Amino acid sequence: QGQKAWIEKTFCRRECVFVVPSTKDPSRCCCGQLIALHIPPLPSATSGRNGEESTELEAPPEKWSVGRHTQAYPTDAYGTLEFQGGGYCNKAMYIRVSYDTKPDALLHLMVKDWQLELPKLLISVHGGLQSFPMQPKLKQVFGKGLVKAAVTTGAWIFTGGVSTGVISHVGDALKDHSSKSRGRVCAIGIAPWGLVENKEDLIGKDVSASSPDWAIGRSSPLSLLDSGNLKKTQVCPLRSWRVPLQLYEMRKTGSHRPLFPLGHRLGQGVPVVGLVVEGGPNVFSIVLEYLREEPPVPVVVCDGSGRASDILSFAHKYCEDGGVISEPLRDQLLVTIQKTFNYGRTQALQLLAAVAECMKRKALVTVFRMGAEGQQDMEMAILTALLKGTNASAPDQLSLALAWNRVDIARSQIFVFGPHWPVNALEQAMLDALVLDRVDFVKLLIENGVNMQHFLTIPRLEELYNTGNLPPDYHISLIDIGLVLEYLMGGAYRCHYTRKSFRTLYNNLFGPKRGNLPPDYHISLIDIGLVLEYLMGGAYRCHYTRKSFRTLYNNLFGPKRLYKAMAHESSESELVDDISQDLDSNSKDFGQLAVELLDQSYRHDEQVAMKLLTYELKNWSNSTCLQLAVAAKHRDFIAHTCSQMLLTDMWMGRLRMRKNPGLKARGMWWWGGGRVWT
């Protein structure tokens, strides 16, 4: 009941309250409704204090407008919409709202009540409402690329919300994706209330309605935009959603460091990209409006889809540098516009002027041509357009690719000049990669010059330990981590964090005498930073990092022992069973890696391999690799030929304490008279 009251108090609908007869059909109002269906206006809309408003309504202007001739009422349609078709049944949430509803309120509804994850990207699809055929190959590439871009980046797809035109092709792509159950895609349809069929079935409070159409797709919250006009659709003002999304995400997490740091630093919020497929004359004004925004919204045009898209892509391809349209090209475009839209010269010149303005911002327009060199799919075109449209530095573009978890884009579009970056420019990216558990990005950053020994300072390492879902006002210190490690390792292991030398250093850094040491004081032992991966379950990330530091198998049994101990502790506690299984699996992975590395080093040099087995590891309380293997009960490692040869030498070495052991053995035989003593 409380949720219903909040929805009805917060969201409004629009109803046409004054009749402006249409010149084409006198039985209808300019809003598209039948005159007989008009509801009476509210008292405040018919009479004012001095009768001024009533007089105004008695002499209405000739042109109908939403703001002047509609009245706001509490919303009367929200609930669950069930999409049926293709053997699948999927539910989506919907609500009827006014065209001027604030994005903050809708965001609260979507995230808090509808349980949607906040997006890292907004994709707005524009095109014609009339049904049009699309080449089968182009339709397949378009659908797969759009869905893949949404899945990999966690994007929200905004459409017109109806089942015709380009939106039907989007719906087909979502339907195909849904049938294969490969991740959830969030598609939001914003449709004029007047264009919704059987809208009477949607009216009600928290109702459940069904639709045989696949207009939107799977698990898609449907927000119905009430324009009050049956003939016109509203352009989704996604630019107004960018900063509210960013601020909402920061309020939700209670953090001053947002998940999408690039938009926060540039003051842009969550990025937006426009996607144009086919389209009528209004598409040119939509594209121009996007390009004129501050900051501008990049646009991707799908060449070969027809009408407006083909005109824009043709102008983009043949215009001169700086977007200048030559006279021959202008004449050709003018004729094409007239034929495409059946326009006269005057109307065609207006559209041509809009095309020319768009070409002045040619750098923000990306044309996707199927089969063109350097363009693999629609997904890459969308993400590349966003990189061009952000007008950001290389580190900020890297932050954008990191938020999308697209290491391929970072490698091909950002690190194109090799590891020539400013000093410390990649440290923030490394910090974000560790927090977000981006394994491939950690590898890429190390390849391009990040020095982990300089990166892992004491304050930064402690910050990484405290980035999890901790209770409020709860802080984990490195000394706490040391005590936990000693408990998990057992035996005589003594962690570096609990030693007196480190405690003194730690107290000088964070205690009353904090000013005695600089905040960028670096930890001399690289491996203590890798404990973060052990405790957070980053087995594969730690796997790569250790190979980078060339420690071979000497430090593999520490994490194996830790994982095994944590698996035992989690199985004894009330944690989810999967956690214990994952930890045990990580322990086995490290053990298998140790055996493989031992076998490789043994084949390369037997003596060096045996020396490495007895090398004392300062980071592990001067324990040897063989001792850690025994503590971890790694039987395969101990049974290896190298380990057995070492144990044999150690055992036989007791009989070889002095020189010439062979002569001494013969002397003993001679002294004993060749007899066997019993």
Describe what this molecule looks like in 3D:
The strands form 3 sheets. The protein has a 10-stranded mixed beta sheet, sandwiched between helices. The protein has a two-stranded antiparallel ribbon with strand order 1-2. Strands 13-14 form a two-stranded antiparallel sheet. It contains 31 helices and 14 strands. The radius of gyration is 34 Å and the shape is elongated. It has 4 domains: 2-74, no CATH class; 77-273, no CATH class; 274-368, no CATH class; 525-653, no CATH class. Helix 12 (327-341) crosses helix 13 (345-359). Helices cover 49% and strands 12% of the residues. The protein is of the alpha/beta class and 678 residues long. A hairpin with a 2-residue loop joins strand 3 and strand 4.
Number of domains: 4
Supply the helix-strand structural class.
Answer: alpha/beta
Outline: elongated
Largest sheet: 10 strands, mixed
Question: Tally the helices: what do you get?
Answer: 31
Helix content percent band: 40-55%
What is the percentage of strand-forming residues? 5-15%
Task: Tell me, rounded to a whole number, the average pLDDT.
Answer: 75
Could you tell me the number of beta strands?
14
Q: Whole-number radius of gyration?
A: 34 Å
Across the major sheet, the strand order is 8-3-4-9-7-6-5-10-11-12
